[in-house]
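EI: anyone free to look at a 325-residue chain?
SC: sure, send it
EI:
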Amino acid sequence: MPASGAGPAPRQATHPKGVAPAGRGGAAGANAGSAKGLPPPPAEHAVQAEAVPGGYAEGYRDGVFAGGEALVAQHIPPDHILPAVAAADLIAAGFRQYAPSLTRLSSPHEIAGHIMAALDAQRPLSVVRLGDGELLTLAADTVLPGQEVQELAPFLPYAGVPCSTPDIRAMLAEAIQAADWVGVPISRAPTFQGLLFPVLRHFGIDWSQLKLTSSTINYSLHQSGLVLPLLQGRRVLLIGSQAPELAALLHNRGIHVTGIIGSVAGVMDIPRVMQQTAKHAFDIALVAAGIPAVILCRRIAGELGKVALDFGHLADKLVTGELQL
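SC: here you go
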């Protein structure tokens, strides 16, 4: 079965319910981040945290207890104890029971192989990615109250969705359902996998019928040295605010960029972008346009018969020099 991936690390923000939202463009190593899986306080801050009542260390200990031993205690009958068995031991034992349900996500080399095969055969293929932005957009007024989504996701307007409406949610859900490959978060944080399956269920999308990879497949392709080989000898269209700068970088590496479409002004700008896209001759489109990228990639494949990859914040990191081609 195809496989599932990592989500960008949650932003450090406080919410009344203790949920920290996260931006879609996490770094390549964001797999480890989780709003409810924070690492122990760094050593250099440990003494200070211990010395401050209610400080980080105390809050961390309380959180670990509430999320572990306190949950175990709810299952122990009155007037009983479970000697010398830690919550971690019980989790390990329970995990073995559910291990057969593990779903493997397609690796970067597998995804690159599918992209290469589609390019060689000149057939359409779309690779889209779901981060907390997409999931919170879908969750608004469906699995979460709209007001709560606004509090959790003040970044949504920047990501291309000024307001989650039924029409936008329908377009996004349809794109996910029809995409060839869907990147999903590995993080089990509340705004990642905590929303993924409830949202898919609400929109009638059977996750087991989707071809899954990691939501950071863009970074994984880069880390595996697969981006340039995919683009060599191909006509490349770039879409997004970093397109001009990225085009210059790719040109310096011998990549033939045949078209540039600048900033995408949110989901309402998708019709214009599609009209512009249809005017270009290209084999593969790299789309770095926030949440609209999911819809654009699917439409580019479905309507224009091309390969489209949701390139995301990898474009920004290449342009700024944080990552190198």
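EI: Residues 1-52 have pLDDT under 50 and may be disordered.
SC: 👍
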